[in-house]
Amino acid sequence: MADLDLGITELLVPRRAELTERVAWFVRLRWLAVAGMLVAVPIGQGLLGFQHIAGQTILLLAGVLFVLNLVYVGISRTLNRQVQGGKPDLRKFERFAKTQVLLDLLILTAILHFSGGVRNPFSFYYIFHVIISSILLSRRSAYGVAALCLGLFSGMVLMEHFGIVHDYPLNVLQQKPSAGYVTTAILALGTTLFTAVFMATSIMERLKQKERELEQAWREVKQLEATKSRFLVLVSHEMRSPIVAIRSILDALSVVYSKCMGEKPVAMLARAGERADSLLTLTKDLLTLARQQAIQEGQGEPQVVDASAVMRSNLELFKAEAEQKNLALTGSYPERPVNVRADSESMNLVLSNLVSNAIRYTPAGGKVGVSWQTDGPWAVLKVSDTGIGISESELPHMFKEFFRAENAKKFTASGTGLGLAITKNIVERAGGRIEVNSRLNEGSTFTVTLPLAE
Amino acid sequence: MAKRVLIIDDDPDIVEAEKMILESHGYEVDSASDGDSGLAKAQKAPPDLIILDVMMTTMDQGFQVAYKLKQSPELKAIPVLMATSVGQVTKFKFDPKTDSDFLPVEAFIEKPIKPSDLISTVEKLLRA
User: Fold this and answer.
1) Percent of chain A with pLDDT strictly greater than 90
2) How many CB atoms lie within 10 A of CB A220?
């Protein structure tokens, strides 16, 4: 028994989560087993006529299982706390799992012994432990569990057969089973258990292989993503300096030499300057996108930011921006903190992207409304405008990278189609969602819903 | 007498463009393409104002230059205008309101600098 290798140490770290989940599952099954025993004993003795089974002993065993299960619950809580505390001891998990399997099998064997022994068809319940072991543990350990089951069962029925322990027949009519029957029962259970292990572990082996392949592919994709982000940062950064220089030279030329150049060249210089500006916006947005992706790839610590404070610090700026375009901007937010899981830079981006869009795509004289509210466990940001709106056919594409609606392109040439993609990225990383409602020529409402931090 | 401005920037095109604009407004402009030669020029003939780029040979050379300027008894009174695109490249956003304690410069301006912004900021700093 001591050398029974459950193979837990060879499991990868994510599997430990699976293991603790299965332990919880076992605990629930055990409550069911206790209830089953409490019901089965009176039914067996009363309705089915099995007066000879040791009913009281079985109920006592149900009590033992009940107490043991309570102990398991306590131990798994402690172990899970240690996992959260960062220093889980794998060997403790291993011992814990081993103990549970061993005690479960002993109790099952004892129940069978007190209720007919080899005559009790419930002996096939051993198969559950064998199948679970085949799924969770290594192939070798699964065969070990099957051997243990068979050993316990044969030990019990042989000792009963040879009179080493008392035999509890189901009722008075039952004869002592013949040696041939005992042998057949052992053979039947043995072949069933080992065939089950063979089938289950073969399927599991294939699944595990697939999982390893998936994990490998996933890791490669992550790596490619990281490379892409780094490349994007590098390229955008390298592009910026020359564009800044171009813009500066164009400005200097049009300011200093405007008098000797005439109207047309100055206008052309201004147009070249605008093109340089749109390139600058693009590099800026690309940088933001790449940086947001980098944060997403787990380079940043999870943070909590007060959305109310972000709103408070930006509202005056937004109002000034709206006033320049002759728009009325109203903002409301709760006075108390509205904490959400994000960093303040990201939250600033979400808010300013949505509000700048609303301001940009609303003709003079229109209205823009910004509000933060809380709704149960959610923080809800609504940015609405009376702007140009979005056509129904284009609504589903609004959050795609580089997408710009046809009417938006006509309305203003500037814009890269990255702002909403960046916004969606941030919102989803914070565990939230973003939605848009819009009618063409009437206006749009963007709604961001984020889970409140504890 | 014309006010003297020293531009420390490693991009010759930017230097040339800023120089053109400042000279057209009657400033006398000198330039240096890295932090050390900029500091040397400032010490030799202290200008009335320094325009300083952040990222030159290293990511933060402009910051180092700013520290050295403000540690020097003869130079610390010279206003420094920091021209930067650093806010978009790294995670940091600099703001003289919050960062003046550890970044002793008088003003920040993001590149590309509009000619009107350049002139108004320079005038404001020289008046102060």
Assistant:
1) 40
2) 10
State the Cα–Cα distance between residues A45 and B6, nearest whole angstrom. Answer: 103
Interatomic CA distance for residues A376 and A349, integer angstroms: 24
Cα(A150)–Cα(A186) distance, integer angstroms = 7
Query: Residue A112's closest CA among A65, A153, A164?
Result: A153
Average pLDDT, stretch A227-231?
Answer: 83
Residue A239 has a pLDDT of: 86
- Which residue of chain A is at minimal alpha-carbon distance from B10? A241
Asked whether the predicted pLDDT for residue A186 surpasses 70, the reply is yes
Give the number of A-B residue pairs with CB atoms closer than 8 Å.
Answer: 55
* Burial class of residue B104, CB neighbours in 10 A (0-12, 13-18, 19+): middle
Nearest-CA distance B2 → chain A (Å): 18
Q: Which two tokens stand for residue A272?
A: 């070249």
Distance from CA of B75 to the nearest CA of A (A): 28
Structural tokens at position A322: 């709206």
Domain ranges (residues) in chain A: 13-223, 230-294, 303-451
Pairing of strands B4-8, B28-32: parallel
Six-digit token pair at A202?
Answer: 């073969």
- Structure tokens that stand for A423 in this block: 């916004």
**How far is Cα B51 from Cα B106, in angstroms, rounded to an integer?**
10
Count how many Cα atoms sit within 13 Å of the Cα of residue A276 in the half-sphere of its side chain: 22
Dump pLDDT digits (tens) for B65-114.
888 888 888 898 999 998 877 554 443 445 554 555 556 678 888 888 99
Question: Distance between CA B28 and CA B26 in Å, rounded?
Answer: 7
Structure tokens at A326: 């002759």
Residue B83 buriedness (CB in 10 A; 0-12 / 13-18 / 19+): buried
Residue in this structure with the two tokens 């009722």, named with its chain if needed: A171
Nearest to B24 among A240, A256, A276 (CB): A256
Q: Which of B7, B9, B14 to mutate to test the interface with A (most CBs of A within 10 A)?
A: B14
Chain B hits for A288, Cβ within 8 Å = 88
Give the separation between CA A310 and CA A347, rounded to whole angstroms.
7
ipTM of the complex in this document: 0.84
Confidence of residue A301 (pLDDT cuts 50, 70, 90): low
Give the whole-angstrom CA distance, residue A58 versus residue A68. 15
Q: What value does the mean pLDDT take over residues A238-250?
A: 90
- The HSE-up count of residue A5 (CA atoms within 13 Å, CB side) is 8
State the Cα–Cα distance between residues A307 and A332, nearest whole angstrom. 12
Helices A344-360 & A307-324, crossing angle to 10 degrees? 30
Q: Which of A251, A260, A292, A295 to mutate to test the interface with B (most CBs of B within 10 A)?
A: A251
- Those residues with Cβ within 8 angstroms of residue B12's Cβ, 6 or more apart along the chain or in another chain: B33
pLDDT recorded at residue A296: 67
More confident residue, B79 or A80: B79
Query: What confidence tens digit (pLDDT) does each residue in A93-125 have?
Result: 777 877 888 899 999 999 999 888 888 888 889
pTM of the predicted protein model: 0.57
Q: Tokens 């057209």, residue?
A: B24
Whether residues B24 and A284 touch (CB distance < 8 A) is answered with no
CATH architecture of A303-451: 2-Layer Sandwich (3.30)
